[in-house]
């Protein structure tokens, strides 16, 4: 199977070796995202891609301790899930990433 066939249906986010600290900021189509690593499950860690744009007013969130915080109105989001910790029902867009051949990949819809 060719490399192109193997990656069909996925978008390459970056090489695993390029991200050594999490949450790791990454820009996709000029928009800010974070790669987060979850080691809470048994076995291999899992990875997620969390959007860095607040759903409330479009502010760019930043890492503060174990949360993402929007500087516009101080909405706060869990760093692992993207769910708001102070605004019930709000969340940052969060999608699972796969690691294949040393690359973070996002499955295309």
From TrEMBL:
Its keywords, alphabetically, are: 2Fe-2S, Iron, Iron-sulfur, Metal-binding
Which Gene3D superfamilies does the record cross-reference, listed alphabetically?
A: Rieske [2Fe-2S] iron-sulphur domain
- Residues of the Rieske domain: 10-106
Q: Which InterPro entries match?
A: Rieske_2Fe-2S, Rieske_2Fe-2S_sf
Q: Per the database entry, which stretches of residues form a coiled coil?
A: none
Protein known as: Rieske (2Fe-2S) protein
């Amino acid at each position: 199977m060719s490399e192109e066939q193997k990656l069909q249906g996925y978008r390459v986010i970056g090489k695993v070796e390029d991200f050594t600290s999490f949450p790791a900021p990454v820009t996709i189509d000029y928009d800010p995202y974070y790669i987060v690593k979850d080691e809470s499950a048994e076995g291999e860690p899992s990875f997620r891609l969390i959007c860095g744009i607040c759903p409330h007013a479009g502010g760019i969130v930043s890492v503060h301790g174990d949360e993402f915080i929007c500087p516009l109105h101080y909405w706060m989001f869990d760093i692992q899930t993207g769910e708001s910790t102070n605004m019930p029902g709000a969340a940052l867009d969060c999608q699972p990433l796969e690691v294949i051949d040393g690359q973070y990949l996002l499955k295309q819809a």
